[in-house]
Structures are given as structure tokens and as C-alpha cells.
Target: cysteine-S-conjugate beta-lyase
Amino acid sequence: MADNSREVFAPHSDNPLRQLTVDQLRRRTSLKWRAYPENVLPLWVAEMDTLLAEPVAQAIRDAVALGDTGYPTGSGYAEALATFASERWGWDGLSAKRTAIVPDVMLGVVEMLKLVSDPSSPVIVNPPVYPPFFQFVESMGRPVIEAPLGADRRIDLEALEAAFTLAVQGGDRPVYLLCSPHNPTGTVHTAEELADVAALARRYRIRVVVDEIHAPIVASSTRFVPYLSVPGGENGLSLMSASKAWNLPGLKSALAIAGPDAADDLLRLPEEVSHGPSHLGIIAHTAALRDGGDWLDSLLVGLDDNRRLLADLLTEHLPAVRYAPAQATYLAWLDCRRLGLGDDPAAIFLERGRVALNSGIPFGTGGTGFVRLNLATSPEILTEAVRRMASALA
Ligand SMILES: Cc1ncc(COP(=O)(O)O)c(C=O)c1O
Model:
């Protein structure tokens, strides 16, 4: 990366996205900065280039100082999430009694699917969608049925109904695996859309499992609506976590949350599932939700800035790329079909531009010709990434 990127580095900035240099980031040992050689700039997997929120770092330091590294217990994580949900989303329906700790969101999804479906039950998803939705479901042996998002990147109720019709013919106890907010498009489903989904699911007797991991990362102009809070959503099962919003995927833990009519299902969760999450993870996630609100607000401002910056950079350097800044997540879903780079532009950007983005292809129908770019980085790295993408066309 060009040396001038370091001159604008702002270690004392309030913006969590401007506190680490490329050299520091390259010393990290986690996936994002290690999967590719040093001359590749990585803006792919959903890790953020931030320091820890101070309350989180302090909670971990305190635990380490005490040797507090035993087994987890108690409902502090769920209570912190309930307070966060009430303050941020105006939702008071999260009862710690109807929650369970799970190792992480995707293993939580697997466990929820086991609770409300059979080994042959189809699972409906909305592509383009987070690729592990396919991988985890398929490795459970359950067939996936696609209900693609509409061209507006929103849930297409007709496509969903067609998928539900197919699903009820194809096997017992189908489940709809909803992503809210949606990865990779960053779509925030409205209360009305979610209520329509819930009504449709009830009509077809299809249970809904909803992955709400990105819920805290919603632009200030938009409001996240928990699925369990909408009329008809009472028999849903949700997975939430502080992992994405505070960059804690290495500190494993997440929460499964049952709506009032799904409480009995959650009670059937095998006790041993709660052995998976890490005690240190629960400490970190709890501190994030309880005391990390200011840090999150600064992050959200930084992400808004980066969305605008990306739009400007693309207009200037890659005007043929279609980009609609999202309302949520730190991911940008870029339509590169007019660039003439074929089905997998990410492969060309990597090979010719030395910049790593996610290929759209594993996201399922609607992913061909798209790339997913991770915005949770400094404006300087983002600028250099677009420069590299443009150089791939030269
Ligand atoms: C929609 C979605 N679900 C789940 C995960 C992974 O979460 P976890 O590491 O808690 O399984 C991600 C990570 O990016 C994600 O985007």
C-alpha cells in the first residue's frame, strides 16, 4: 500500500475505523489479514479493522487479571441484550428466560433448525445470501429452497410464497431461514414486511429462524425491527450476538431467543450446547452490549462516512459499478456486471489489482457478476482498494 496512507492515519480519532495502520493490521493473526499474501489488500471476510471498544477491552483485562477463565454461568449476556434491545429498538419483549447461550450464530442456527425441523425438512433462504446459510444447511443434509430477493433487494413475497408452496410439498416441517438485516445487501426489513412474512409463514405452517447478527449495525436514518416483535412472529426463533458490531468473532458466543410461542421448543435444546460458548466471549459480548453504546455510535458514523466515500470513489474511478449504499451492515454489494469481467469479478480484482473481495457466486442466485466489499476499514484503505480495483481494468 502507498506510504502516504500512513500520513493521514489518526490514532486519536473518535472514529474506530481510523485507529490502526496497515502495518499494525498485518500483524494480526486472524483470517482477514492472513489468508492472502502481503501485497494483497484484504476487504473481504466480515472482520473489522478496529481496536476493541474500551469497555470490552477492560472487561477482558479484568477477567484475565482475576484468572476468571472458568465455565460460564448466569444470564448477564441475555439481560444486557434485553436492555440494549429496549433502548435501541424500543423492544421490551426479550425475556432472558426465553434465551439460551450458543457457541456462535451459525451453530445456533443449526441447533434451532434441529429443534423445529426434521432431517429431511427443506430450508428456505433468500439469495443472494450469506454463503454459510447454504453450507451449514446442506451439511445437515437438509435441502435448500431458494426464494430470491427482488430486484429492489427486498423480500419478494410472491417468490417466498412459491418457495413455501414447494417446501410444504417437498417434506415435513420446512423452515424459513431469514437474514435480518440481510447480508450481503444490507437491506433492513420493515415492520410491515416482517409482519407479511410472519403471516405467510403461519399460513403455510412454516417456522421461522432469523439470523439477526447485524441488528446493531443499522444507519441512524433507519430502525431495525426484531422479527419476534412483529405480529405473527411470536413463534419465531432468533439468533443475536455482539460478534459483528463489536468485532468479537474470535470470542465465541451468541444468544438464541425464543418468541413466547417458541419457548417450549427452546427448552428442548440439549444442555450440552451451552458448553460451547467461551466464558471470556460471554464477558466480552456482555460488556459490549452494556457499555459499548458510545463506541458503536462512533462506528456507525464512520461507516456512514465510508458508504459515502465508496459511492464517490466508484463514481470517480469505476462508474460502471452499480452501488446502492446500504442501510445496515458494513458490507457493500457491488454489481460489477457492466465491467465486462465475467461471472467472477472478485477473481480478476484479486489477480490484477491485488485486492481481496468476496466473490458473489457463493451467495447463490443473484450473486454472479457481483462482489462483496467490507467497508469496516479506514478511509485510506478503502480509497486504495478502489484504486486497485480500477487498476484491474486498465
Ligand atoms: C448473517 C451472518 N450470520 C452469521 C455470521 C457468523 O456469525 P458467527 O461467527 O457468530 O457464527 C455472519 C458473519 O459474518 C453473518 O454475516
User: Anything to note?
Assistant: The first strand starts at residue 41 and ends at 42. The chain has two domains: 4-53+294-391, 68-291. The radius of gyration is 21 Å. The pocket of pyridoxal-5'-phosphate is lined by residues 46, 104-106, 130, 179, 183, 211, 213, 241, 243-244, 249, 254 (CB under 6 Å).
